[in-house]
Structure formats: C-alpha cells, structure tokens
Amino acid sequence: MDPHPSEIIQPVRTVWVTRLGEAYPPKYTWACNSQEIESKRAIILQTRKLADGRDPRRAETFLVDEGKFLAAGEVFKEDESVVFRDDATNEVVGVVMRNLIDNPGILEWLDHRVKIACHERRNTRDPGYGVTIGYSSGPRKARKLKWTGPYRVVKATKVVQSTIENSSAGAHIWNEARKRLPQEVVHDFESLAVPCMGFNSDKHEKEGPYAVHDGARRIQKTGVYGPPSAVLGDYYARFYHKETNAGRYVVSLTTHRSVAPDKDEGGHFYIAAYGIQIRSSADTLLAFN
C-alpha cells in the first residue's frame, strides 16, 4: 500500500555528493569531536575489558577536524532535512529528516517503549543497551527466520502486551517515515521477501490496526506494519563493523538526546564515504545505504 499522494511530504532539498577516495572519518576508528573527549575516551577504549571475546580490539580514536566539513559545506545542522544522492550514479546514499514524529507526547511514548524493551529483553554484550525486536535470522550457527527472544523473567501476559506495543511503535514510525522518504528507499523495504513486524507473527499481516499514546490519550490508527526487524538502543555503542542486511537501506530514529543543543558533545552521524557530518538531535530519522 503506497502512501496517498496527498500524504507524501517532499524533502526540503537534495544535495549531490561525491564519493571520496578515502573515507573521512577513517574506517575502524572512534570519531572524537574534541581533544578533551579523545584524551578521556582513548584510555577507556584501550584498557576496558572486551564485551565479546570473539571480536578483535578496535580501539583507535580519531580527532575529527570540523574545519574540513565546514569548508566543504558538508555539516548538516540540527534543523536541516536533506536527501543525499551520489552525483555520478543518482543513487540515494543517505537521508536525514528532522521532526519526523512532530508530537512531543508520542515521541516521549516511543522513547519510553525503547527503555522498557531494553529492560525486558536480554541485552547484547556491547556497552549500553541494545536489543532486537521483530524477526531475527537466528544465531550464527543455526540460521532460521523466527520471532525474536528471549525475554528476561517476564510474565506471559506482559510479553503479549509488549509485543503489541513494540509492533505499534514500529508501525507508527514506518508510516510517518514512508510519507517523507524517497520512494526507492520505501520500496526497498517493502519489497523484502520477509514478513512485516505485525504483532500477530502467525498471520504475517502487512497492514492493520495499531495504537500510539500521547500522554494519557490512546490513539487508534490503521496502516502498514513496520519492517521485519528493529534494534532498540539506549546509550549503545559498538566499534565499526559490518552486518549482513536483507535490503540495501537501514533506517533509524533518535527518540531522545540528553545533550543541550548549544553544546557539542559529539555523538553525530557520519556518512564517511562522502565526508558528511549530520548533527544529532531528537526526533531525527536517518536512512543510509
């Protein structure tokens, strides 16, 4: 079900970008925005116990030269919505959409859902919290498409309720995102030969009812269900690594950022192959290839 033409919100602008000969910031580094941050974090990264013994230690820090981005005009501020296209291939290489949810009450509910899911489910080995909801391809040695688990010690009735709430959160984010994303990104997700993240995993429904919360008010909606899988994180961090993905694009939404807008504490997003820095802020959707 494509969005009705009247629902599609056009992006503010398109920026044509050139792929760099070498990525900036470089691959396999932790990008730091100041000497103070680099000095503080380098010691921790070099000496802390590895979260997963199977992973190599990749603890190099790299002090980002903000002047390089500013000189090239490739710093995108907290209020800028942009589609990035490769100037040689016309391919969408990234998207930033500000104020996607555009409702403080619903955004607060989504952020609350993230924190609850991180508490209820078994965490990854990495710093912070990172949990998967929806479908999973299974463990490395026994690949199989299945609904994710496991939970911590949670009552069965609460598992059902959490599944419904998580699915509704995913559906709302995706229905808002598909109105604003370039259609080639939307079609990449919706052409996947895997089920949507509906709350009834047995029926594999592509669309149906869901509900969101704005404070004490429960709002009933109908729309498509979200992509099959999502990772929810709270202060989550992991070194540069690769994941095998079913489609070409990944979409993320920042539900909360505790740093004041007038302070630059880092945590920004980089499309390093094109030397682009996207400033972090709450209620920001990112899509990247």
Structure in words:
- The strands form 5 sheets. This protein has a 5-stranded mixed β-sheet with strand order 1-5-6-15-12, covered by helices on one side. A 3-stranded mixed β-sheet has the order 4-14-13.
- The chain has about 290 residues and is α+β, with helices and mostly antiparallel strands.
- Helix 3 crosses helix 4 (about 155-180).
- Strand 9 (about 205-215) and strand 10 form a beta hairpin.
- The protein is about 25% helix and about 25% strand.
- It is globular.
- The protein has helices spanning about 35-45, 65-70, 105-120, 155-180, 185-190; strands at about 15, 30, 60-65, 75, 80-85, 90-100, 130-135, 145, 205-215, 215-225, 230-235, 250-255, 270, 275-280, 285-289.
- It has 5 helices and 15 strands.
Helix and strand topology:
Layout: E1 13-17, E2 30-32, H1 35-47, E3 61-63, H2 66-72, E4 75-76, E5 82-86, E6 92-98, H3 104-120, E7 129-136, E8 146-147, H4 156-180, H5 183-190, E9 207-214, E10 217-224, E11 229-234, E12 250-254, E13 269-271, E14 276-278, E15 284-288
Parallel strand pairs: 1-5, 2-3, 4-14
Antiparallel strand pairs: 5-6, 6-15, 7-8, 7-11, 9-10, 12-15, 13-14
Helix pairs in contact: 3-4
How would you describe this structure in keywords?
alpha+beta; three-stranded mixed β-sheet; 25% strand
Share of residues in helices: 10-25%
- What class would the helix/strand composition place it in? alpha+beta
Question: Major sheet: size, sense and barrel closure?
Answer: 5 strands, mixed
* DSSP helical segment count: 5
Q: Report the end-to-end length measured between terminal Cα atoms.
A: 23 Å
User: Looking across the biggest beta sheet, what order are the strands in?
Assistant: 1-5-6-15-12
Report the sheet-strand fraction. 25-35%
How many beta-strand segments?
15
Q: What is the averaged pLDDT score?
A: 81
User: Which residues sit in consecutive blocks of at least 5 with pLDDT less than 50?
Assistant: none
